[in-house]
Write a structure and sequence with these properties.
Chain A: It catalyses: 5,6-dihydrothymine + NAD(+) = thymine + NADH + H(+); 5,6-dihydrouracil + NAD(+) = uracil + NADH + H(+). The complex is a heterodimer of chains A (424) and B (447). With 424 residues, chain A is α/β, with parallel strands linked by helices. Helices cover 30% and strands 20% of the residues of chain A. An 8-stranded parallel β-barrel of chain A has the order 3-4-7-8-9-10-15-16, surrounded by 8 helices. Chain B has 447 residues and is of the alpha/beta class. The complex binds flavin-adenine dinucleotide, flavin mononucleotide and iron/sulfur cluster. Residues 338, 355, 359-360, 362-363, 377, 382-388 of chain A line the site of iron/sulfur cluster.
């Protein structure tokens, strides 16, 4: 069996699966259950200065598909609403009882040096392995000048990170908000401030749905709603891109990454690691299915690694980074065509109508003599967009086949039709 | 998943409650959750084969998509705009040889989408909600149309003609509307008085009047109707039945299956229905199956269905034959009736084994006979047109001949449903005939 142990910001973990700072890590009771289930570590629910915040009732909203399958959820919860001291005592106790598991203390404070430093020292004294700066909460806390209000200003990201580095001698994770135009600006700021790692992403600002009876965004709090933080499967693509941007930028080299955002299973985990993540954090999937999902994450990842011959996470970590390039570096001469396997085709016609109405009119539809329907790709018209293969309900029925055209690798800057090139 | 009845055996008869339970819904209606799951199985095909397979061309992928988006009322309207008896069809259509047989899921060796149950889900939703009729009438045309027969063909024609702005008078011989929806379909397909509820719903469009107890050829004549109305539609179904042609056919206990089913449908307390202990049903169509299964449901201890050819020649669908077998009906193939014995009341029947004569492909008796003890014989060997009131109309092969567009040989007289040769003799075909005939009449009235 593959070795799943990981090291991030100098901290050793039995596996890369940590629970992100959120309700699953809110207190001793949950965290112990998580450790019993096999999670390698937790980032404790974000701590603030006393008095603790007060939450509203009606806190989560959901984005569902037609079968009640959950695409994503959002929330308008604030940080920990329990007294700081209670949290710190529970952290201490858990650390004692579970010496091989990681506990990171997440924190936020108003933009004031003393406030950040004092809180960080208190948390450090509870025995945590590291401190995570929550600079991402996009609702409520930002209205009080915290969370994303700080995370959206690179100078403040750098400043708060530096304060914590100065205050405590522990690994520092700066947790980034995706609600910005360019993730590299905040990642670079965190690096300049001395962060050992960045954690990303925090939740995405959102309204998940409007209650058409109440005429209010959900979750509805006494007839009104507010924007909240979106997370779960839907945000994975956003998180993957942001992780990749940091992993491949020269300016953020050496910055370690604790990847978060829509990780639901081992495959998601492997994808983040392939894009350079050193560790992983999960919130929504645990909230939807319970802590037991870590079993499949561990078993699935280790099967995958065994199959591919990877002995440790380092063996494939970042392997997809070199293949993540700018558009301008893609091969313009590459050509791929859809091929519909007539033996697998069940004749639903979805590929035809998709290509006919919205793509390149490249799938011919005919009714044969025996009444059966046939759908055939016209190679000359197919541009290789993948649309038909994506929507086909039958697995492996439509295959995208690369054409061996013998042409050399040619990027857009080298392309004869590029007006910039012609101007040279 | 086939409906399993409580069966009577070993001389123990069924309790009233058991009989009532046997006449519960053949297929349980879908819950919202089940409907969402069933709808999810639909691929939303383009130019879907199921639409072509439906005689009324309901846009099935669209209505299922509407169920998915929880636009259930919209789904019902999509169905009813093509088939105003979508509710009955959802219950009675042999979907296994119609829409569901054409479902592309079958090509993937999967179960087809449960189109019939989804259709019922949508239409029942709309009917339960009540409120305004979903369709508006065009401005009054001032034209009057007579419809003979308040079965699916007649009512479908009346509804569409009313929508097109015409005023319709329906003449119906029986005391209730619905035709075989009310008097013929198996009771466990039409629970809770659905036929009457559907007629009420359909009448909600306005512009239709039904006169009961008005038989063409007795109370009214075709000539009178042609003189008084701009056009006439005949949807009289098949009012007569074939006879065995055996001595003793008039003995007590020997009945037309159709009559037996009609009495059963009209009996509100099924436990009051008389049924034999050993019932013999003769025939190979769905009427024979319905008579056999419902006899079992009433508590007949032994039911033997006798058909003179092999199973593949039976016009009953595979599902129906399976339903009969599951419910303890013995299916006796390759045998034809030769004698009815009994003293006043039937006591036994004699059958002769049959075989195919390979040379000329005809059915022949082999001479070998066997006797079956029975106290009730139900004949289901086919219905035929009662032509007595149809003077002056061209008939062909025992049905009213119609041209394209459902026009008969008499100007201004149209016909559809079982009394013409269109598709199969099915409710859904009758509805389609009536609808198309209404459009043909509309065109006719314009000239
Ligand atoms: C026992 C049985 C079970 C069946 N089960 C199914 C099934 O499960 N699914 C399915 O799709 N199909 C089934 N069918 C077939 C289906 O019922 C018919 O195809 C359909 O009812 C035909 O409709 P119609 O309007 O043409 O005729 P009918 O339903 O027969 O209606 C004709 C109407 O005209 C009236 N009428 C007749 N003569 C006159 C007259 N002279 N004057 C005035 N009114 C008159 C009758 O009283 C009746 O109301 C079954 C048929 C039978 C007999
Ligand atoms: C209800 C809820 C509360 C959260 N509270 C916090 C928090 O206190 N501190 C924090 O840093 N992130 C918080 N998050 C964000 C998560 O830690 C995580 O970054 C985000 O949900 C994306 O990961 P996921 O897709 O696995 O859920 C919260 C998320 C949810 C759903
Ligand atoms: S890949 Fe795109 S262009 Fe080619 S056949 Fe499929 S949908 Fe049409």
């Amino acid at each position: 069996m593959a070795d799943l142990s990981c090291k991030i910001a100098g901290i050793d973990s039995i596996n890369p699966f940590w629970l992100a700072s959120a309700p699953p890590t809110d207190k001793y009771y949950n965290v112990v259950r998580a450790f019993e289930a096999g999670w390698g570590g937790v980032v404790w629910k974000t701590l603030g200065e006393d008095p603790p915040v007060v939450n509203v009732s009606s806190r989560y909203g959901v984005h569902q598909d037609a079968d009640r399958g959950i695409i994503g959820i959002n929330n308008i919860e604030l940080i920990s609403d329990r007294p700081l001291d209670v949290n710190l005592r529970e952290i201490e106790q858990t650390r004692k009882e579970w010496p091989d598991r990681v506990i990171i203390g997440s924190m936020m404070a108003p933009i004031d040096e003393q406030a950040w430093k004092e809180l960080a020292i208190k948390i450090a004294n509870s025995g945590v392995h590291g401190i995570e700066l929550n600079l991402g909460c996009p609702h409520g806390m930002c209205e009080r000048g915290m969370g994303s209000a700080i995370g959206q200003v690179p100078e403040m990201v750098e400043q708060t990170t530096r304060w914590i580095r100065e205050a405590v001698d522990l690994p520092v994770f700066t947790k980034l908000t995706p609600n910005i135009t360019n993730i590299l600006w905040s990642a670079e700021a965190a690096k300049k401030g001395g962060a050992h790692a960045v954690s990303l992403i925090n939740t995405v600002n959102s309204i998940v749905s409007v209650d058409l009876d109440a005429m209010s965004p959900t979750p509805v709090v006494d007839g009104k709603g507010s924007h909240g933080g979106y997370c779960g499967a839907a945000v994975k693509p956003i998180a993957l891109n942001m992780v990749a941007e940091i992993a491949r930028s020269a300016d953020t080299q050496g910055l370690e990454i604790s990847a978060i955002g829509g990780i639901e299973n081992w495959r998601d985990a492997a994808e983040f690691i392939a894009l350079g993540a050193n560790g992983l954090q999960v919130c929504t999937a645990a909230m939807l299915y319970g802590f037991r999902i870590v079993d499949d994450m561990i078993a699935g990842l280790s099967n995958f690694m065994d199959e591919k011959g990877y002995k440790t996470l380092e063996d494939f970590r970042g392997k997809a980074v070199e293949n993540t390039v700018d558009w301008n570096a893609l091969n313009m001469n590459f050509d791929t065509k859809a091929f519909i396997d007539p033996d697998k085709c069940i004749e639903c016609g979805r590929c035809h109508i998709a290509c006919e109405d919205t793509s390149h009119q490249a799938i011919e539809y005919a009714v044969k003599e025996d009444g059966r329907r046939s759908f055939t790709v016209v190679d000359e018209d197919c541009v290789g967009c993948n649309l038909c293969a994506m929507i086909c309900p039958v697995p492996d029925c439509i295959e995208m086949r690369p054409v061996d055209n013998g042409k050399p690798y040619m990027t857009w800057p080298e392309h004869p039709l590029n007006p910039m090139k012609a101007a040279e | 998943m086939t409906h399993k009845l409580c069966g009577a055996a070993g001389g123990v008869s069924l309790s009233d409650d058991e009989i009532a339970a046997n006449f519960g819904d053949l297929h349980k209606p879908l819950s919202q959750l089940q409907a969402m799951q069933a709808a999810d199985h639909c691929i939303y095909c383009y130019d879907a084969p199921c639409i072509t397979a439906c005689p009324t061309s309901i846009d099935i992928p669209t209505f299922i998509h509407q169920i998915r988006t929880r636009n259930t009322e919209g789904a019902a309207k999509t169905i009813l705009s093509q088939n105003i008896m979508g509710g009955t069809c959802a219950r009675a259509c042999p979907t296994e040889v119609l829409c569901e047989q054409a479902c592309v899921r079958n090509h993937g060796d999967e179960e087809p989408v449960e189109i019939g149950l989804l259709q019922r889900f949508a239409v029942d939703h709309l009917m339960a909600k009540g409120g305004e009729h979903p369709f508006k009438r065009a401005p009054e045309s001032g034209k009057r149309i007579a419809v003979v027969g308040a079965g699916p063909a007649g009512l479908s024609c009346a509804h569409r003609a009313a929508m097109l702005g015409h005023n319709v008078t329906v003449f119906e011989a029986k005391p209730k509307s619905g035709g075989l929806n009310e008097y013929g379909l198996a009771a466990y397909k039409m629970v809770d008085d659905f036929a009457q509820r559907e007629v009420d719903f359909l009448m909600g469009v306005g512009g239709i009047e039904i006169k009961h107890g008005q038989a063409l050829g007795k109370d009214i004549s075709l000539r009178e109707l042609r003189d008084t109305y701009g056009a006439v539609f005949l949807g009289v179904g098949l009012g007569d039945t074939n006879k065995l042609g055996l001595d003793g056919e008039d003995k007590g206990g020997v009945l037309d299956a159709i009559q037996f089913i009609e009495d059963l449908r009209q009996e509100s307390n099924k436990a009051h229905m008389k049924v034999g202990k050993h019932v013999v049903v003769i025939g190979g169509g769905n009427t024979a199956i319905d008579a056999a299964v419902q006899s079992r449901a009433l508590g007949a201890e032994k039911v033997t269905l006798v058909y003179r050819r092999g199973e593949e020649a039976m016009s009953a669908t595979g599902f129906e034959i399976e339903l009969a077998r599951t419910n303890g009906v013995t299916v006796e193939l390759w045998a034809q009736p030769v004698a009815i014995h009994g003293n006043g009341h039937v006591a036994s029947m004699v059958f002769e084994r049959t075989a195919m004569d390979e040379k000329n492909g005809t059915l022949v008796g082999t001479g070998e006979t066997f006797e079956v003890r029975t106290d009730m014989v139900l004949k289901a060997i086919g219905q035929k047109l009662d032509g007595s009131a149809l003077d002056g109309l061209d008939l062909a092969a025992g049905k009213v001949s119609v041209l394209d567009g459902y026009a008969t040989s008499l100007t201004g007289v149209f016909a559809g449903g079982d009394c013409v040769k269109s598709g199969e003799d099915l409710t859904v075909q009758a509805v389609e005939d009536g609808k198309q005939a209404a459009h043909a009449i509309d065109e006719f009235l314009k000239v």
